[in-house]
């Protein structure tokens, strides 16, 4: 039996596992990914990538490739309901051009360098796979993890090539379990889950039918059909000939999966379409249950749960895959820091502290977006509308604050600046105003004649962005970086600074004075901010960095 060694073993080659491989590679960390299936997903599954996830993909240079992969789906917006798809669609006038719509209040959401995009999981995963291979990732499909054990210094896993039945052993410093909702690894670790459980029973019917003329200029995202003989939800996939219908069935009424043959499903889809003469080809029928379940722990020793292995939620909030991608982005820089000896392994405990509350929150919100059958609720009651408004920050990937040892929550920003606002800005409403634990503020700046986002400076190292008069803070950074053997970069932002921007632009966005600064982690979250230059800045900055890296006593 062959034996190999790798810093990180990733079990699961879906959208989360592939993203983990890419994020680790971006930090220079080698990994081995194993996936029991022979290739990437052949089913659409997730149908969108939110703004924050596109920021993460921009950071590793694949955002445009991801957007291009979903070009055929990009015009699909709007959620409707009726007694058939034809009834709903024919009730809308055709648009002269088909393309991503200008959403009402789009200027309100100018909070990042990229927008989210419509794209299905089976479109995204080949992009991630190609990029991961380009980065030198060791990706092995048709290989499964059949056993593992962890000791004080490593994880030992037994792998089996499913085509040859040849087994091998891998020793890894750490292991990421991105092995799906059923997660054998989670079960083996004995980690329990909590939550509402299954909300309904659905059949995910992937089918081919040429509806291009029907939907041309009237593209939709989701359409709920509710009639006595059939209830379900249509989801557009390519706005031409590939579609999904989530068919609801009820075991309490004696209905079973075996009752729904391909022939019966074909007729039910035709009824829901309102097009009994159309030619339909059923490609697959996958039973599934919209579920709200969250693992009680995301870490057990040297093993970490991510994606559906950590949290399951109905897809109607559009947050299942993107929450998992945020999981591994949070984890990647921490693993890199520990493996390089820049941080103690206590830093890894902040993964659970930071990501578990977010996983629980978005799972509960996604569950609340479902009706009694587990389908998307399109209720127009005032309470339902308010609930949607409340969820908006999470839908686009923001609206939460990390609290852990890897965040220095000391805030010297004056109370009046943080609280007094006659008209709050979008960044303040979404919690993107520079507070420690939030995603760093975005503004456009000029760096060496290039127009970039402040977010484009992040990802490889700790970055300190000071106000226009923050020379003292910037001068302290190289000394602290050398003392701690940590990668750190410093910039000033202002009309005559390295980052050229209008006077006060960065200070206003970050909640600092012209002599203050924001310290940002490699994952783009604010680790610490100071309104002005603190006494003994070298010692203060060193203490902050030691705390964030869990090196302080």
Automatic annotation (TrEMBL):
GO MF terms, alphabetically ordered: FAD binding; oxidoreductase activity, acting on paired donors, with incorporation or reduction of molecular oxygen, NAD(P)H as one donor, and incorporation of one atom of oxygen
Record's protein name: FAD-binding domain-containing protein
Keywords: FAD, Flavoprotein, Membrane, Oxidoreductase, Transmembrane, Transmembrane helix
Residue stretches making up the FAD-binding domain: 6-365
Database matches in SUPFAM superfamilies: FAD/NAD(P)-binding domain
UniProt superkingdom: Eukaryota
Keyword Isomerase applies: no
Pfam families, per the entry: FAD_binding_3, Rng_hyd_C
Residues that span the membrane, as ranges: 6-24
Cofactor(s) required, per the database record: FAD
Stored InterPro entries: FAD-bd, FAD/NAD-bd_sf, RIFMO-like
Keyword Iron recorded: no
């Amino acid at each position: 039996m062959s034996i190999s060694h790798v810093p990180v073993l990733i079990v699961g080659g879906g959208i989360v596992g592939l993203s983990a491989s890419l994020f680790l590679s971006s930090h220079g960390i080698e990994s081995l990914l194993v996936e029991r299936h022979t290739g990437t997903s052949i089913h659409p599954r997730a149908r969108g990538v939110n703004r924050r996830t596109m920021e993460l993909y921009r950071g590793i240079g694949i955002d445009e490739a991801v957007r291009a992969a979903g070009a055929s789906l990009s015009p699909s917006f709007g959620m409707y309901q009726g007694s058939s798809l034809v009834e709903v669609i024919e009730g809308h006038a055709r648009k002269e051009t088909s393309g991503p719509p200008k959403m009402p209040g789009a200027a309100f959401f100018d909070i990042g360098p990229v927008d989210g995009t419509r794209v299905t999981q089976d479109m995204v995963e080949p992009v991630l796979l190609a990029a991961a291979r380009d980065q030198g990732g060791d990706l092995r499909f048709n290989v499964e993890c059949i056993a593992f054990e962890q000791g004080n210094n490593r994880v030992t896993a037994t792998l089996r090539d499913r085509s040859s039945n040849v087994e091998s052993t891998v020793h890894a410093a750490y292991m990421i379990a991105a092995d799906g909702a059923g997660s054998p690894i989670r079960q083996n670790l004995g980690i329990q889950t909590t939550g509402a459980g299954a909300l309904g029973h659905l059949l995910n019917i992937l089918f081919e039918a040429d509806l291009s003329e029907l939907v041309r200029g009237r593209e939709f995202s989701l359409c709920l059909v509710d009639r006595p003989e059939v209830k379900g939800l249509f989801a557009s996939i390519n706005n031409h000939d590939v579609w999904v219908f989530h068919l609801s069935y009820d075991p309490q009424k004696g209905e079973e999966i075996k009752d729904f043959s391909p022939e019966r499903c074909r007729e039910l889809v035709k009824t829901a379409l309102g097009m009994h003469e159309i030619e339909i080809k059923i490609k697959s029928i996958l039973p599934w249950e919209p579920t709200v379940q969250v693992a009680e722990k995301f870490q057990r020793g040297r093993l970490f749960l991510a994606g559906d292995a950590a949290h399951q939620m109905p897809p109607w909030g559009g947050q299942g895959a993107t929450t998992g991608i945020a999981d591994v982005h949070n984890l990647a820089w921490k693993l890199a820091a520990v493996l390089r000896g820049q941080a103690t392994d206590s830093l890894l405990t902040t993964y659970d502290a930071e990501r578990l509350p977010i996983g629980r929150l978005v799972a509960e919100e996604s569950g609340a977006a479902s009706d009694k059958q587990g389908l998307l609720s399109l209720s127009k009651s005032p309470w339902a509308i308010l609930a949607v408004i409340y969820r908006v920050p999470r839908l686009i990937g923001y609206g939460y604050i990390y609290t852990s040892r890897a965040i220095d929550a000391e805030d010297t920003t004056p109370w009046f600046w943080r609280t007094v606002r006659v008209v709050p800005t979008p960044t303040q409403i979404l919690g993107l105003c520079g507070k420690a634990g939030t995603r760093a503020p975005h503004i456009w700046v000029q760096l060496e004649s290039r127009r970039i986002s402040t977010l484009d400076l992040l990802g490889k190292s700790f970055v300190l962005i000071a106000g226009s008069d923050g020379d003292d803070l910037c001068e302290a950074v190289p000394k602290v970086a050398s003392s701690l053997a940590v990668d750190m970069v410093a910039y000033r932002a202002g009309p005559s600074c390295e980052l050229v921007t209008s006077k006060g632009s960065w200070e206003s966005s970050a909640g600092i004075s012209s002599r203050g600064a924001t310290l940002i982690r490699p994952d783009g979250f604010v680790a610490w901010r100071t309104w002005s230059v603190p006494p003994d800045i070298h010692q203060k900055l060193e203490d902050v960095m030691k705390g964030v890296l869990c090196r302080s006593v």
